[in-house]
Design brief:
A: 19 helices; B: 8-stranded parallel beta sheet; 7-stranded parallel beta sheet; 50% helix; 14% strand; globular; General transcription factor IIH subunit 1 (chain A)
Chain lengths: 547, 759
């Protein structure tokens, strides 16, 4: 194992691994640990395999170092220098520092993409199966597979991760620490700064204005923490600092919002009273002028403001997206619709309050959505008919048919008394024909397919379907091929289908014939039909094109 | 379903029914049969409104001669709108069942603010301004002036209505505020006046309490409603306060000053008119001689904002001679205002009876009782004569005349209190003269006398024997229904101590104690950490809320609270509070959860529902006693003790507990809902408090839940929440808290059998 050319970079004795004492060696390619007094290498990790190293926290009795490998395995080494804790720590730190310098050199350029794909495959069994069926059998190439067939999965990955909202307590989390000499130390992280900016756009504006031209970043934050703006229990007017304006901007914003009013009639307290008492009537004392007079009133206002702004910060993005979508639609008749909308919304809100869902019958409650009204139900159910002129009868014909039918039915009533509909002999005959073995039951197999097919074959059929459907869906998507790329793709997909036919379907059919001959045809009939339909389409298209 | 309630077929617009709804119908029918008043308590969220409407509408259709009209009074505009929607649903159900729309007209009456469709006037938000502007477009002399002067603006909708609105009848149907507006727009009729006109013959009228209880408005609006009416006061737990508010008047320096200005203006106008148009004043004098009830004068549009309650005697009498002449009347008013001014110049609190006040006024400025009584009517007449279009400017002097009339009319049940300063700011001189009504039965008496059945109902009326006393009426039926439940969907708990075993209480001696405030804070933080979605807290007063929030900020409670949920606080500015509420709902709906700090007796506690996830827990910090140092309250308590033999403490506790129940009841809005109710005060566990809670809360307040520490309460809540989070289906409810028609019928049959066996 050990090549002769290996250099020992560091050797640390008295290292315990899994209850065995030994020595830790840091070589130039790998990390090894040998049991004491023996020559065998018990642990050997190539640096390239090591993902990270961890050390035990300070103050712990055991001084340990752990290396974690890419495959998730980890090995823990316990430093047991007899010279005491200090020496153990020194040993450990030596190893740690050495590893720190070594590891980055060996850090394999992990193909991120590959890793991602790997992860995708392992997390989606259906995709993995498809991959096996299509790529491993070389029906489609790997690139094609990732570009086309797995696109929905990769896209899901690409989708923007949900924005992390703002915690309500982010300001509270900035705990001041006394630094011993009458000063306070605030620790802020980029996260907190982000939160502050998101929630208080006014502060962000100030920041952009002042940093770094007028103030350094730390000065800016120092001022921020000194300001009343941060200390919610102070009042504005007292100090004239950078953030006085921020507070005012926020206040104005809030005022504007309040003035626009509340559209939910159930919480709009100002509109609750139908008739208010005039000034001078009633027992209650006149309301003291509602200015944010006392400190605590101002504080309460700011708590409300804070919560509202936190909520707004998270809502902002969704709204802007939604608005962007809505704008073009409404452009025309905004002015007309608006009052109506409010009216309907209000009505819905009230309706939702007065309905007792448990009192309603279940059917009534479910019929909420808009109902579909169809002028021609058949067309909706069957899809567009190829030859619809057959349906149309001229009125004369129709009436004659109707008359005929009426005549017939009239005769039925007269001919048959309701008790005997069929003669006994005929009934027995019909029953016989309908029993297994009878003339009408020739195609019937006593055992259903499901019972006959062994589980593994069933599974295989399922996978075949899965792969074929995937291919077919892409194939059919190319039609009608309007652009050259589409045409190319159609050709390519056609080839892929052929390859699939030879690489997957044929072997399977052969296998079936060998193993369960009677069924072979039945099981793959439909698959073949699907394929043939596609081939047909393709050849038709080719013919038309070549003409 | 169609029910048989004591022989009456009732259409109920649902396929299932709660047992208590059926019981409620039975009791209500008995009251209707007996043509008497009744008092019914049924928990919120059990479909009270739809039950009431179904039964009364069925009764009305069955016995059209016994009950001609249903007058449904509710408290807030959203409540009214809800009632209208329920009514619509019910009548549509009738149509579906019978194939014919029932021959009923139901409509809402609301203030001009809500009903106006005039393009300019309706943009105003303040009710008073809308009234004033409307008046300046529709008063009779304005319209007369328009006849010869086209530049005088008038309201086309009112003109349209007066042209052909009164001849036609409204088609059968239910008209909510929006429907009325649409109806008005389609026909070019004013919805407000249309609605005021139609309520006289509509079968179902829905409006606010004030239209019936406030004599100033009732005189104008509801005077001609038929006697064979059923009047329903929904959410009526505060009805006594509404009555008192509508009959009380207070005057401060500012009002006096403005009234003086008004008088001066009036004097000038009268003098001008004396020169220009001598005849008009002469006419008025003649009319006053003949008596006040001159129909041609009292056009409906002129009579706004006037008329305090007047005994019928006054209306038939002629105005006394010494105030008939306009100049005389103005100097009379001047004297009266001067007198009030002197009364306000006091250094200490004065309290006296109306009789004493009248005597004093007689000796000091030689004003007798009789002309005082006519003050309000006389001023209204003068303002009409002077063609003053915008009455809002004259509200101070109108207020003064109302005061005069009230004092002179009622010698009992009122008190006069002059306070030189506010109790909270004893250094600032701010004298106020209160003429305060002490007897809530005065305002509601005409209603009880006039209408054959008055139903007072709410989710929280306990203890029920108090209402007949303070409203001075004799109900034929008095009943409280509980909520049948298939699972214990409410969890009332009394938390009496914090984790450190310090008793928590908002009583005066300990409320500022840091330990108590800290324990309240800890309780809230613990609850916030364990209860999902929305949490609502109620404090006893706004001042207390403020001081607690300040201490919580210092103690770091707010910080730890914000770690779990967003924090919203009710403020004294209602627009701001509405806004905060809107975001509170948004926060709950986005899944972040939120805490709302609010005040008992505040607007939030009275009108906003926190159903389902909006209120999974309600905390009541302390017992919401009314501010007991207020002299007006003291006077009222004395009066109650002397007149009705109600002990002060009984009334105070009753008042506090109904508000507490009202607050915690906000969280439960139906049987599929669930919520925790925490009463955080040691005093709640005493039996005198506990027993005054509504029955449906008491039932679930087991003895083991009445003396908990914070930690214990949170443990119980956790377990309970886990239980509540399980799926809850209709099948679980059926037969227990939800009945099909068959189940109901079999239940009835077995009951009858039992009775038969007993006999």
């Amino acid at each position: 194992m050990t090549t002769s050319s290996e250099d020992v970079l560091l050797q640390v004795p008295q290292v315990r691994y899994k209850k065995g004492d030994g020595t830790l060696f840091l070589m130039d390619q790998r990390l090894i640990w040998m049991v004491e007094n023996r020559d065998t290498v018990a642990v050997s990790h190539s640096y390239a395999d090591i993902k990270s190293q961890k050390i035990s926290p300070e103050g712990k009795v055991k001084v340990q170092l752990q290396v974690v490998l890419h495959n998730g395995v980890s090995s823990t080494f316990h430093f047991t220098n007899r010279n005491g804790l200090q020496a153990q720590l020194a040993d450990r730190d030596k190893v740690k520092e050495m590893l720190q310098t070594l590891l980055p050199k060996f850090k394999r350029k992990v193909d991120r993409e590959l890793e991602e794909k790997n992860k995708l495959l392992s997390s989606n069994p259906a995709l993995l199966q498809l991959y096996k069926d299509l790529v491993m059998t070389e029906v489609v190439t790997s690139e094609e597979f990732w570009v086309q067939h797995a696109s929905q999965y990769t896209q899901k990955q690409k989708q923007q991760p949900q924005d992390i909202g703002v915690s309500g307590a982010f300001l509270a989390d900035i705990k001041p620490q006394t630094d011993g000499c009458n000063g306070l130390k605030y620790n802020i992280t980029p996260d907190i700064i982000e939160c502050i900016f998101k929630t208080y756009p006014a502060v962000k504006k100030k920041y952009v204005e002042n940093v770094p031209t007028k103030l350094s970043e730390s000065q800016f934050w120092t001022k921020f923490f000194q300001s009343h703006y941060f200390h919610r229990d102070r009042k504005y007017a007292e100090s004239k600092d950078l953030f006085t304006e921020c507070g005012k901007i926020d206040d104005q914003e809030m005022k504007r919002d309040i003035q626009t009013g509340v559209d939910d009639p159930l919480v709009n307290i100002t509109e609750f009273e139908d008739k208010t008492l005039d000034e001078g009537y009633g027992v209650a004392n006149e309301k003291t002028n509602v200015t944010s007079g006392t400190v605590s009133q101002a504080m309460i206002k700011r708590f409300n403001q804070h919560s509202i702004m936190v909520l707004k910060a998270t809502k902002k993005q969704e709204n802007s997206e939604a608005e962007a979508k809505n704008v073009p639609k409404q452009n025309g008749n905004v002015s007309e619709e608006k009052p109506d909308d409010g009216h309907v919304a209000k009505k819905q809100r009230i309706q939702s309050k007065i309905t007792y869902e448990d009192l309603d019958s279940p059917s009534a409650s479910s019929s909420g959505g808009p109902s579909l009204s169809l002028s021609k139900v058949e067309r909706y159910l069957h899809g567009p008919m190829p030859d619809s002129n057959v349906e149309q009868l001229n009125p004369n014909e129709a009436s004659s048919v109707l008359r005929g039918v009426l005549q017939e039915t009239r005769q039925w009533q007269s001919r048959h008394p309701s008790t005997s509909l069929v003669t006994p002999a005929a009934a027995v005959g019909a029953l016989g024909e309908l029993s297994p073995g009878g003339a009408l039951m020739r195609g019937f197999q006593e055992q259903s397919l499901a019972q006959l097919v062994p589980a593994d074959i069933e599974n295989e059929v399922r996978n075949l379907y899965l792969a074929l459907c995937e291919l077919l869906s892409h194939f059919w998507k190319c039609f009608p091929p309007s652009t050259p790329t589409m045409e190319q793709k159609a050709v390519k997909m056609h080839e892929a289908l052929h390859r699939y036919h030879t690489a997957k379907l044929k072997p399977f059919e052969d296998k079936l014939i060998r193993e369960l001959s009677p069924l072979s045809h039945h099981l793959t009939k439909h698959l073949n039909q699907l394929l043939n339909a596609a081939y047909q389409k393709f050849s038709n298209w080719q013919k038309i094109k070549n003409r | 379903m169609k029910l048989n309630v004591g022989g009456l077929i009732v259409y109920f617009p649902y396929d299932y029914i709660y047992p208590e709804q059926y019981a409620y119908m039975c009791e209500l029918k008995k009251a209707l049969d007996a043509k008497g008043h009744c008092l019914l308590e049924m928990p919120s969220g059990t479909g009270k409104t739809t039950t009431l409407l179904s039964l009364v509408v069925a009764y009305m259709l069955e016995n059209p001669h016994d009950v001609r009209k249903l007058i449904y009074c509710s408290r807030t505009v959203p409540e009214i709108e809800k009632v209208m929607e329920e009514l619509k649903k019910l009548l549509l159900y009738y149509e579906k069942q019978d194939g014919e729309y029932p021959h009923l007209v139901g409509l809402v009456l609301s203030s001009r603010k809500n009903l106006c469709i005039h393009p300019e006037v309706s943009t105003e938000r303040e009710g008073k301004i809308v009234d004033g502007k409307c008046h300046s477009l529709t008063a009779s002399y304005i319209r007369e002036r328009h006849n010869y002067d086209d530049t005088t603006p008038i309201c086309q909708y009112y003109e349209g209505f007066s042209l052909d609105g009164k001849e036609s009848t409204m088609p059968y149907g239910v008209y909510s505020i929006d429907d009325l507006k649409q109806y008005g727009r389609d026909r070019n009729w004013c919805p407000y006046f249309l609605s005021r006109f139609v309520i006289n013959h509509a079968n179902i009228v829905v409006y606010s309490y004030h239209y019936l209880l406030d004599p100033k408005i009732a005189e104008v609006v509801s005077k001609e409603l038929t006697k064979e009416s059923v009047v329903i006061f929904d959410e009526a737990h505060n009805i006594d306060n509404v009555c008192i508010d509508s009959m009380s008047v207070k005057v401060n320096k500012r009002i006096i000053d403005r009234a003086t200005e008004n008088i001066n203006l009036l004097e000038r106008t009268v003098a001008e008119m004396r020169e220009d148009d001598h005849k008009k004043l002469q006419d008025e004098y003649q009319r006053l001689v003949e008596g006040l009830r001159d129909a041609s004068v009292a056009r409906e549009t002129d009579v706004i904002l006037s008329n305090p309650v007047l005994p019928d005697a006054i209306l038939t009498e002629a105005v006394p001679g010494n105030i008939r002449n306009a100049e005389h009347f103005i100097s009379f008013l001047k004297r009266f205002i001067e007198y009030l001014k002197t009364r306000l110049r006091v250094q200490h609190v004065v309290q006296e009876s109306p009789a004493g006040f009248l005597k004093d006024i007689q000796t000091k400025v030689c004003i007798e009782r009789k002309p005082l009584r006519f003050c309000a009517e006389r001023l209204a007449s003068l303002l009409r004569t002077l063609e003053i279009s915008d009455l809002t400017d004259f509200s101070p002097v109108i207020l003064i005349t109302h005061l005069a009339t009230l004092v002179a009319t009622y010698t009992k049940g009122f008190t006069i209190i002059v306070e030189p300063f506010d109790d909270k700011t004893p250094t600032v001189s701010n004298p106020i003269l209160h003429v305060s009504c002490l007897d809530s039965s005065i305002a509601i008496k005409p209603v009880f006398d006039r209408f054959q059945t008055v139903v007072i109902t709410s989710g929280t009326l306990s203890p029920m024997d108090m209402y007949p006393k303070i409203l001075n009426f004799h109900p034929v039926i008095m009943s409280s229904f509980t909520m049948t439940l298939a699972r214990p969907c409410l969890l009332p708990m009394i938390v009496s101590k914090g984790n450190d075993q310090v008793a928590i209480s908002s009583k005066y001696e300990t409320r500022e104690d840091n330990a108590v405030i800290r324990n309240y804070g800890q309780l809230l933080v613990e609850v916030a950490a364990n209860v999902p979605d929305g949490i609502v807290c109620f404090f006893t007063s706004y001042l207390y809320l403020e001081s607690v929030v300040a201490s919580w900020y210092d103690q770091g409670v707010i910080d730890s609270l914000q770690r779990y949920k967003l924090l919203f606080i009710e403020t004294q500015d209602s627009a701001e509070t509405s806004f905060a509420l809107m975001y509170y709902i948004k926060a709950c709906e986005s899944g972040r959860g939120a805490v709302l700090l609010s005040v008992a007796r505040g607007k939030v506690s009275e009108g906003v529902d926190f159903d389902h996830h909006l209120g999974r827990a309600v905390l009541m910090f302390g017992i919401p006693y009314v501010y007991t140092q207020s002299r007006i309250l003291k006077a009222r308590l004395d009066y109650l003790r002397d007149q009705f033999q109600i002990k002060e403490n009984d009334f105070l506790t009753f008042d506090a507990m109904r508000h507490a129940a009202q607050c915690v009841g906000r969280a439960i809005r139906g049987k599929t809902d669930y919520g925790i109710m925490i009463f955080a005060d040691k005093r709640f566990s005493r039996s005198d408090k506990r027993s005054k809670l509504p029955k449906w809360i008491q039932e679930h307040l087991k003895d083991s839940l009445t003396n908990l520490s914070t930690e214990e309460a949170v443990q119980i809540a956790k377990r309970w929440l886990r239980q509540m989070a399980q799926p809850f289906t209709r099948e679980d409810q059926l037969g227990v808290s939800l009945l099909t028609l068959e189940q109901l019928q079999s239940l009835e049959a077995s009951k009858i059998q039992e009775q038969a066996q007993q006999n």
